[in-house]
Amino acid sequence: MTATPEYPFGPMTVPEAVAHTARLVADRPMTKMTMPYGGDVWLVHRNSAARAVLADPRFIRRPFRTGERTVPFFVPFPDFLRTTLQFEDPPQHTKLRKLVQKAISPKRVAAMRASAVTFANQLIDAMTARGGPRNLVTDYAVSLPIEMLSTLLGVPSADREKFERWSASTLAVAGKSETEIAADLRDLSAYMTDLIARRRNQPQDDLLSALAHARDRDETLTDAEILPIAFILIVGGFDNTATFLSTGVLALLRNDEQRAQFLTDPDGLAPTTAEEILRHGSFAVGQPVAGGGGLVPFVATEDVEIEGQLIAAGDAVSLDPGSANHDPAAIDDPGRFDIARKDNPHLMLSYGLHHCLGAPLARMELQVGLAELFKRLPQIRLAGEPEYNRAVLTQPMTSLPVTW
Amino acid sequence: MNAEVLYIQPDGTERVIGAIPGDSVMITAVRNGIGGILGQCGGSLSCATCHVFVDDHDAAGFAPISEDEDDMLDVAATDREDNSRLSCQLIVTAGQHIRVTIPKTQL
Predict the structure, then answer these.
(1) Which residues of B touch A54 (CB under 8 A)?
(2) Which residues 6+ apart lie within 8 Å of A334 measured at CB?
(3) How far is B74 from chain A (nearest CA, A)?
């Protein structure tokens, strides 16, 4: 085959997609693609080139926040997401990010692990009490991240039901109308504003208190700064973590050898299994894979050459995680689903200044969610085919029927 | 003069990597596939996933701990010790031979 490997590419079998990606990254570091909205964007395929872009301060986000540029994306980028931390640049980004990251730090998340284990087991108790088959997405994968985020933010137990109802409204799996979502977001916003005020008066050991009281030290944080931080965690944290967990369980259920290995030591293997699911889970479930599109883009402030490709000043550039996670130069035998993989420099949670804010929390939830489920229900198996909502961009799994 | 970093894993496994002066101990590890150093934020002091213990004899060769690094070391997954550093802040200089030990966990 001498033709230039095409990108984007339509659905193909997993081995074909892996082989195609290998040819693609050998051929070039990136491809310019025209998006349905916002024009052209460079999609960076090579793992090394993606890291170079993501660590380079000459790529910024401000033009998207100010509206000077439209975000090149598959859909019109939601306005309320353009005001959040991920569209700030230094020095404002540095100030906000530092404050939040201390509250979602590796140490802080490690301290939350025991409560995640307890809650996961309560969910499993409820499933076994009702009997199989159950929908693992709604009964387990969505509930765990919502509970953990409520704990992190400091939403009181008595308010969790309504908090979860409003927050879940933004979930792609909820399938609500735009009017309903707007009303729920207004209620959520009013509730959070009130909670921030309460935490300013009476601080507790939670994220909102930490942010509200940052204004009493050298940094100052207004409600208008805190609210979008809470929103980005809610929007970013629920859907994605639930999808990774559901996908991970499905990947293990469809790979008998890897599941058998996982069952020999779920706690010990959970960390590497979680990383491998982040990297390769969507391939390991065995369905056809397509390539095209990436994470939230940046804009080049000047001409920058990356691995021989000129990115001109004003060009948009984004990471193509599907390719970067299957680049043979970074990942040994990238088509193999290997839950014990040691060196796994995947970019599913991005890299650099704007890497996933909730990364430590997402990883912990994924590890605990997988380990507890398979420890308690080692005989767990599919009781039907998974269902997806193909009508929305992220195409989340809405149903994963399992029994045990 | 060539610089070298010796990375010691928690299980005692050692690997020596030739380092480019001006690069950090973190980026040298990431580029050469040294496990146990994640460096997810790329050196912007916002992830605390490149924590290392620096061999005492080598500690003096680096810039002192800044306030931001100090804050992030406090929230690393493995408890900090007197010789803890974030390896993204350890810039290798020509001729330096550095030994760092990687903690049990970064997450």
Answers:
(1) 42
(2) A18, A21, A22, A280, A325, A326, A327, A328
(3) 8
Q: How far apart are CA A140 and CA A365, in angstroms?
A: 11
Residues A132 and A402: beta-carbon distance below 8 Å: yes
- What ipTM is given for this predicted complex? 0.87
Q: Tell me the C-alpha distance between B20 and B35, whole Å.
A: 19
Dump pLDDT digits (tens) for A37-76. Answer: 899 999 999 999 999 999 999 999 999 988 899 999 887 8
Question: How many beta-carbon pairs under 8 angstroms link A with B?
Answer: 67
pLDDT of residue A219: 65
Q: Which residues pair with A381 in a beta bridge?
A: A403
Cα B80 to its chain centre, rounded Å, is 13
Q: Does B12 touch chain A (CB under 8 A)?
A: no
* φ, ψ dihedrals at A166, nearest 5°: -65, -45
What are the structure tokens assigned to A313, written together?
Answer: 């000043």
A-chain residues within 8 Å CB-CB of B44?
Answer: 94, 352-353
Shortest distance, CA B76 to any CA of chain A (angstroms):
5
Neighbours of A40 (CB within 10 A): 12
Closest CA to A2 of A27, A37, A25: A27
User: What would the DSSP string read from start to end of A171-184?
Assistant: SGGG---HHHHHHH
User: Which SS3 state, helix, strand or coil, does residue A397 take?
Assistant: strand
Calculate the alpha carbon distances from A106 to A144, A301, B105 in Å: 18, 33, 10
Cα(A251)–Cα(A283) distance, integer angstroms? 8
Residue of A nearest to B107 (CA): A106
A53, A58, A62, A63 alpha-carbon torsion, rounded to 10°? -90
CB A112 within 8 A of CB A151: yes
Which residues are CB-neighbours of A2 under 8 A, at least 6 positions away?
A: none
CA distance A31 to A122: 47
Position B53, amino acid? F
Closest-CA residue of chain A to B50: A106
**Range A71-98 average pLDDT:** 82
Comparing C-alpha atoms, which of A195, A188, A117, A203 is closest to residue A156?
A: A195
CB atoms within 10 A of CB B47: 31
pTM above 0.90, yes or no: yes
pLDDT tens digits along A267-326: 999 999 999 999 999 999 999 999 988 888 999 999 999 999 999 999 999 999 999 999
- Rounded CA separation B19/B3 (Å): 5
CA distance A290 to A278: 17
pLDDT-derived band at A178 (thresholds 50, 70, 90) equals confident
CB neighbourhood size of A353 (10 A) = 25
Mean pLDDT of A187-210: 91
